[in-house]
Amino acid sequence: MKKSLIALAVMAAAGAASAQSSVTLFGIVDATIAHGRASGTGAANKTALANSGYNSSRIGFRGTEDLGGGMAASFWLEGSLGNDDGTAGQRIPVGNQNVLNGASPTNPNGVGDGAGLVFNRRSTVSLSGGWGEVRLGRDYTPSFWNLTVFDPFGTNGVGTTLTLVGPAGGLGTAGNAMAPVGTRGVIVRASNDIGYFLPANLGGFYGQFNYWLGENTFNGANSARDGTGWGGRLGYGAGPFNVAISYARTAYDATPVNPVQPITTTNTFTGAVAPTAAQIAAQRAGDFRTWNIGGQWDFGVAKVMGHYTREQRDSSAGNAGTGIPASGEIDGRGWLLGTLVPVGAGEIRASYSTYKIDAGAGADPRARQLALGYVHNLSKRTALYATAARVQNRNGAAVSLNGATLGTATSSTGYDLGIRHSF
Q: N or C, which terminus of the chain has less Cβ within 10 Å?
């Protein structure tokens, strides 16, 4: 009898503990047949089995512990998957973007760096309560949210907005100068981040403030501010209406200090190496600033959404040879207008987006894109999708879709056909 009572007490204690804490395994496996076409002399088409055409493929663990009194502690570890070739970890895009933050929207079939599974999408620990949430680790920047939330295609696949890929997505030397090494990583995600999020009971108002550290030493000969930045987002959503504005700024000094990634154009991950003097001169950094505003209205029969973004980078003498003036600013701006139309078990997606860089000298590269797609939900977790997009380049811009090589013509067409399963 005593043994039975002891067993019941142990089971009760275990039940109480499980009620207070939980750990969840989650993920998305998304595969797509991606085709890119271009025309003109020298053009080359490409067909690939890629991933993340609708949602980013990922695997992760998250958990929450109830601390009592309305407070909770939680963690979130999420890494990228390359389910098209079985790789995991950081995905280096095939192109000119030099980023380690997942497959590029314009090159979804990036190559893996061979590092294995790393939680490069998000790795945070947080404490929350009625006063809000403090979150520490690697996370999305506040300025990124408006570009994905108010885009019917999110930030995946051939239809994603040009306002996301604009700074370094094929707008020529001006685009590369706009986004120095490391900056695009901070556009989407920031490492070494300290974030505060407003509580959810503010009558529709929401927001966050983030500060990320460059974590450089300072000995009087270099600057500890390189790679350090901050950003914030404030929004209001109630009923069918949602609008938000954000701002972010990252400091980049003229000479990178202990760069994690070399300044190269080969797009190969070689670890922490010092750039050469020529490489530093080719892409000398300047402070990078971005702000955007986005919103949507749900009319029932359709959601209409849009956003406007502007990005600026301080120019310097290190821009010699890029067509950028030695002083002043490089200015990029773009906008998107899109819609989501529910149709039975699925929805139609459509958008028009454009991005332009004002380099202050010579022609200003610009690109315009029209995208149309359909998602059919087989269940709450499984969906089939198809997307078609066409981009038109002007003034030296060279945005191409799904890995196509532009020829003498200035346009490119891309198609995605895939399946997404979440768990």
A: N
Alpha-carbon distance of 289 to 331, in angstroms, equals 10
Q: What is the pTM of this model?
A: 0.80
- Distance of alpha carbon 319 from its chain centroid, rounded? 26
pLDDT interval class at 89 (50, 70, 90): low
Q: How far apart are CA 235 and CA 88, in angstroms?
A: 34
What's the rounded Cα separation, in Å, for the pair 364 and 313? 15
SS3 260: coil
CA distances from residue 411 to 113, 158, 310, 405 in whole angstroms, order as listed: 31, 14, 24, 10
Strand partners, 125: 75, 136
Could you give the C-alpha distances from 348 to 93, 374, 386, in angstroms and in order?
Answer: 28, 5, 10
Q: Are 58 and 28 in contact (CB under 8 A)?
A: yes
- Select from 280, 207, 291 the least CA-distant residue to 249: 291
d(CA 157, CA 266): 23
- Tokens describing residue 44: 């080359």
List the Cα angle 43/105/363 in 5-degree steps. 60
Nearest to 363 by CA among 202, 222, 173: 173
Residue 401 has pLDDT above 70, yes or no: yes
Maximum average pLDDT range among 185-194, 224-233, 329-338, 385-394: 385-394
DSSP one-letter code for 282 = H
Nearest CA among 12, 174, 35, 24 for reference residue 96: 174
Please tell me the distance from the alpha carbon of residue 165 to that of residue 139, in angstroms, as a whole number.
Answer: 19
Tell me 269's DSSP state: -
What is the full DSSP assignment across 87-130?
EES-EE-SSS----SSSBTTB-SPEE-S------SEEEEEEEET
Choose among 121, 110, 106, 112: nearest CA to 157. 106
Give the Cα separation of 285 and 275 in Å (integer): 13
Torsion of CA 115, 121, 126, 130, to 10 degrees: -170
User: What are the extents of the domains in the chain?
Assistant: 29-217+224-422
CATH topology of domain 29-217+224-422: Porin (2.40.160)
Tokens of 285: 């950094």
pLDDT score recorded for residue 321 = 43
Q: Is 57 left (phi over 0), alpha (psi -120 to 50) or beta?
A: beta
Question: What residues contact 200, with CB distance under 8 A and at least 6 apart?
Answer: 206
